[in-house]
Amino acid sequence: MSTGFFKVPQPTNEPIYSYAVGSSERQLLQDTLHTLRNKQVEVSMRIHGKSVQGSKKVAMTCPHDHQHILGYYYEGGKKEIAEAIDSALSARAAWAALTWQERVSIFLKAADLSANKYRMELNARTMLGQSKNAYQAEIDSACEWVDFLRFNAHYAAQIYADQPISSPGVWNRLEYRPLEGFVYALTPFNFTAIAGNLPAAPAMMGNTVVWKPAPQQIYSAALLMQILEEAGLPAGVINLVFADGPEAGEVVFKHRDFAGIHFTGSTKVFQTIWQNIGNNIANYKSYPRIVGETGGKDFVVAHASADVKALVTGLIRGAFEYQGQKCSAASRAYVPASLWPAVKSQLQADLAKIKVGGTEDFGNFVNAVIDQKAFDKITSYIEEAKHSKEVEVIAGGGFDASKGYFVEPTVLLTTNPHYRTMEEEIFGPVLTVYVYPDQDWAATLHLVDQTSAYALTGAIFSQDTYALSEAAKALENAAGNLYLNDKCTGAVVGQQPFGGARASGTNDKAGSYLNLLRWVSPRTVKEVFSSPTDFKYPFLGG
What is the pTM of this model? Predict the structure, then answer.
């Protein structure tokens, strides 16, 4: 696509390394893991291009080996948050004054650095700090992060090129201005790519940002910041801060120049943020943009015509990759009675082959959940299920936090479609199955739609075209990303724009131009070449 003097490179999805046994990339990643495990790092905040150390020193550890310290970061407080806001505001004018091509070029360079020079270190930090296996890290911290940068550059070009028509003697144009103020990026632990995209997307559109990552992701966030700065990001455009969430919010959401938030995290936190913004609405210079993706209680519904092996694979990959710690993870399944015996048998057989352990052993499919708090929450659901008359544990159910926060992939069978684990987000490797009578297909679709407050992802398995169509229509509002005969995770930038509605967020579709539109405030300019010089219109006569 050509706009003016600058031709934007046509984006393609970054190729995925397989890390197959004997491959050169496997050996390189293993070497990088070994180096990082034996090298502690110290991470400071980055405010206006300078390292700033807070007063609280916090250890960064491996979730799968929680006594192993990867390094330390220095947490700040209200003072540092205020400094970061001042930095962002002071950098805004110069950054916004650059051409969009000059801004985009920085992020395209960051994409190349991430895909090549820093690929293995990004993956290794994600594996060690967030306990992702090699493949899960590769598709996240390498490929998706790079895709966000390259595709967002392409979408930015499309946006800036979208101009109104002009009548004879008139030139109409749209200017896509950054928001007036600063943007706050509040990012999650589970995806390095999301943590990078939430500050990068608004910045690409000319905004300046205060970025607060989740504490559990700081180990990889620090490298993302390093890459952006190496790519030429000017001081103050993105300010990386570490602070307690509510304490940071006290400063951010009361600031007159707060212009928007880019958020991924829990529904409860997002609702609290929205309420805080509402309480302060009269104080702001403009109405803040609120963009958020929260949780999910993502479903898999199978028709009697479903392929059993495809269904089981979709359930295992959808529910247990990255320990179910994806907001898109399958956590409730509806299986027809006629298929259940075969599905149960295949599930148990496949799950018996899965190994659980640390990420450095590439034979482990499942690794650790993120921390003690998550472990305690997940295992409380499992323990309650073990003592419920409405539930049978048909696979897994074990857990051990002595070395790492390990929870076995667990499948619960319930006779109550409204049992807690069918309705509440667990964010862990727990899948609950409800078996329905085949003849209740239509009623089950209604049940799926009405059971959860969330509407993020869902999957339908069927070899019957009419059944697929019926289900897709019945579940129209139940998922922002719907998958037919595939697992409900794994949205690819540029292919499946991601986001959901209801309690799952504002559905602004990360990985598409729709998200970038939220970070600009258009101005319409009309220029007349020959201005009228008489107020009279012809209909007046004379």
Answer: 0.96
Which residues, at least 6 apart from 477, have a Cβ–Cβ distance to it below 8 Å? 449, 455, 501, 502
From the list 80, 327, 360, 488, the catalytic residue is: 327
Given this model, what pLDDT does residue 4 score?
45
> How many CB atoms within 10 Å of residue 77?
18
Rounded to 10°, the helix 24-37/119-130 angle is 60
Task: Tell me whether residue 508 is exposed, middle or buried, using C-beta atoms within 10 angstroms of its C-beta: 0 to 12, 13 to 18, 19 or more.
Answer: buried
Give the number of other Cβ atoms within 10 Å of residue 10's Cβ. 8
> Tens digits of per-residue pLDDT, 456-480?
999 999 999 999 999 999 999 999 9
Q: Rounded to 5 degrees, what angle do the CA atoms 314, 320, 321 make?
A: 90
Cβ–Cβ < 8 Å for 266, 236: no
Q: What is the pLDDT of residue 9?
A: 76
Copy the structure tokens of residue 151. Answer: 């595709």
* CA–CA dist 532, 332 (Å, integer): 67
SS3 per residue for 494-508: CCCCECCEECCECCC
Tens of pLDDT along 108-153? 999 999 999 999 999 999 999 999 999 999 999 999 999 999 999 9
Q: What strands lie across the sheet with 65-75, from one edge to the other?
A: 41-43, 65-75, 56-62
Mean of pLDDT over the chain: 97
pLDDT of res. 2: 37
> For the residues 62-69, what does the mean pLDDT come to?
98
Please say whether the beta carbons of 382 and 410 come within 8 A: yes
Active site residue 488: no
**209 and 239 Cβ atoms separated by less than 8 Å:** yes
Confirm whether 327 is a catalytic residue.
yes
Assess whether pLDDT exceeds 90 at residue 442: yes
Joined tokens for residue 108: 């395209």
Rounded to whole angstroms, how far apart are CA atoms 176 and 251?
A: 28
Counting Cα atoms < 13 Å in the Cβ hemisphere of 228 gives: 29
The first and second tokens of residue 307, run together, are 């392929």
Catalytic, out of 14, 138, 293, 408: 293
- Say whether 149 sits in a helix, a strand or coil: helix
Give the C-alpha separation, 67 to 17, whole Å: 30
Distance (Å, rounded) from C-alpha 332 to C-alpha 425? Answer: 10
Phi then psi dihedrals of residue 351, to 5 deg:
-65, -30
| Number of residues in the chain | 542
Please report the pLDDT score of residue 7 as a whole number.
66
Both structure tokens of 209? 């940002």
pLDDT of 542 over the 80 cut: no
Model confidence band, residue 198 (pLDDT cutoffs 50, 70, 90): very high
Closest CA to 299 of 408, 452, 191: 452
Taking the CB of residue 193, how many other CB atoms lie within 10 A of it? 27
Percent of the chain with pLDDT over 90: 98
For residues 212 and 242, is the Cβ–Cβ distance under 8 A?
A: yes
Residue 33, both tokens: 């893991």
**Mean local confidence (pLDDT), 45-53:** 98
